Amino acid sequence: MDSQLNPSKRRKISVRHRCVACYKMFNRREHLVEHMKISYHSLHQPRCGVCLKHCKSFESVREHLNVPDHLSKGNCKAIFTKRGCTLCLQIFEEAFALAEHKNKCHLSPPRPLGTSTQRNPSSSLAGSRLKAMALDCEMVGGGADGTIDQCASVCLVDDDENVIFSTHVQPLLPVTDYRHEITGLTKEDLKDGMPLEHVRERVFSFLCGGQNDGAGRLLLVGHDLRHDMSCLKLEYPSHLLRDT
């Protein structure tokens, strides 16, 4: 009977294309290809310990693990609640392994993402023992197709894993794609963001050890660092860059 149906009346079966890294779905293959070009997925990205989904940052992993199971396609939250470390987000097979790990895990507890500065603002970085800082930026999309990368949040961490500076950034262009699955950012997050020029000045000031002479003093470490610096419109001595 089915073979006698008019081909034009047969129901079309839509094929969706999934990103193997972040699991985002696309109706057209070319959209998936474009996504892979601009998402910068790599083995260095944080991943969910349950479903192995790639995320842009640990904040995005934490948000992913807090999605109620009835709203997600997996059971990541339930498994993480039972067998996950709330500090470093690792997943353990046995309860005793998790308990043993928690006695050794001393990462700083997560802070709400917002504008923050070093723990003791009165002390100058000039006399500190800091040798390096790590930079991470979250990008949102601008332009008609959302492919123009714009810096939307910045975080600086010192070599003792202390957050020195963290803030949202006001994009220069209207945002057409918040890339929420990767960045975890929304329109509300960027509402009170710092202007890009002010963020750039603050970051550069920290890298100069608190001095105003414009001379870089600290190593700057990051993944795809040159891309982040380009979006920040930040120039820094190349011999002090360590791009992972």
UniProtKB/TrEMBL annotation:
<dbReference type="InterPro" id="IPR036397">
    <property type="entry name" value="RNaseH_sf"/>
</dbReference>
<protein>
    <submittedName>
        <fullName>AT2G48100 protein</fullName>
    </submittedName>
</protein>
<dbReference type="InterPro" id="IPR047021">
    <property type="entry name" value="REXO1/3/4-like"/>
</dbReference>
<dbReference type="Pfam" id="PF00929">
    <property type="entry name" value="RNase_T"/>
</dbReference>
<keyword id="KW-0863">Zinc-finger</keyword>
<dbReference type="GO" id="GO:0008270">
    <property type="term" value="F:zinc ion binding"/>
</dbReference>
<keyword id="KW-0862">Zinc</keyword>
<keyword id="KW-0540">Nuclease</keyword>
<dbReference type="GO" id="GO:0003676">
    <property type="term" value="F:nucleic acid binding"/>
</dbReference>
<dbReference type="InterPro" id="IPR013520">
    <property type="entry name" value="Ribonucl_H"/>
</dbReference>
<feature type="domain" description="C2H2-type">
    <location>
        <begin position="17"/>
        <end position="46"/>
    </location>
</feature>
<dbReference type="InterPro" id="IPR013087">
    <property type="entry name" value="Znf_C2H2_type"/>
</dbReference>
<dbReference type="GO" id="GO:0004527">
    <property type="term" value="F:exonuclease activity"/>
</dbReference>
<keyword id="KW-0479">Metal-binding</keyword>
<keyword id="KW-0378">Hydrolase</keyword>
<dbReference type="InterPro" id="IPR012337">
    <property type="entry name" value="RNaseH-like_sf"/>
</dbReference>
